[in-house]
Amino acid sequence: MIWYSAWAFILLFFLLLAAVLQFVKRKKRYGALPLSTLSIVQGLQTSLRARLKYLPDVLKYLGLILVVIALARPQKTDEKVNRNVEGIDIMIALDISHSMLIEDMKPENRLESAKKTIREFVEKRVSDRIGMVVFSGESYTRVPLTLDYALLKQNLKAVETSTNIKMGTAIGVALGNAVSRLNESTAESRVVILLTDGENNTGLIDPQTALKIAKGYGVRIYTIGVGRDGQAQLPIYSTDMFGRKVKRYQPIHSKVNEPLLTQLARETGGKFYRATNTQSLAGVFTDIDNLEKTKIEESRYTRYTEMFEKYLRWGVLLYFLGFILQFTVLRRGL
Q: Residue 233, by phi and psi: left (phi above 0), alpha (psi -120 to 50) or beta?
């Protein structure tokens, strides 16, 4: 509730002043009757009429208070908000080749760091459709474009490197797959976030062809090179004769193709990032989150309902009731 003419409450001060002056004047008007002993009046009982002698004044002042409240114009507001949301369609292409198991990023390795950061990125989005393709030597769609973020995060959690698909790093195939998922999108902004730690070394679609397809569809590409270049230790898991899981390390050379990833981003209006630790990877996704903002327009409509009528009605009723009682059943002599 709001008060459109709150200044009217100033009148309550004058009502209070009038009540005080009336009380003082009435006290002066009626004198005291001196008695030699109280025994004369001890047996007398106060009549109901005498007990209610101030009721007319109370009713009139209550009525005037309600009239003042009515003058302040109490209003009930009903606000309606229309949100026009212009979402973004985002496909995430995540490298799941074995080199993503290199343990140079927290909390565990490159893949787990990427999964954690992607999950946090998804949680920041509002009404964008997001999908995910995974790739190594081949690529497949793990989650199509969806607004079901719970489903997306559930599938993201289950992602791991696999021996069921061809080994290698097929950047062109992954990019082509992600762009094809955006082919029929009607969103004004369509984005691919390509995250890899290696160089393109296999696949039926080369990165340059995938780049042309992306440019043709107006898809913007953000590329992220994960991990440090150079010699690294790749964990290899095996089972010993007692059925226990044993981890050993195999030397591997890891290198991100920065010129290729830079070209893919630059020619589509995106941006290339290099993330060598979990903190910098989180900063990359924060930057992308800021660059690719969902457009939300709000239209607010406020309806005001006047509520002064009931206060005015009851105020007038109480005032005239007090007025009538004062000159009828509760009338007092001059």
A: beta
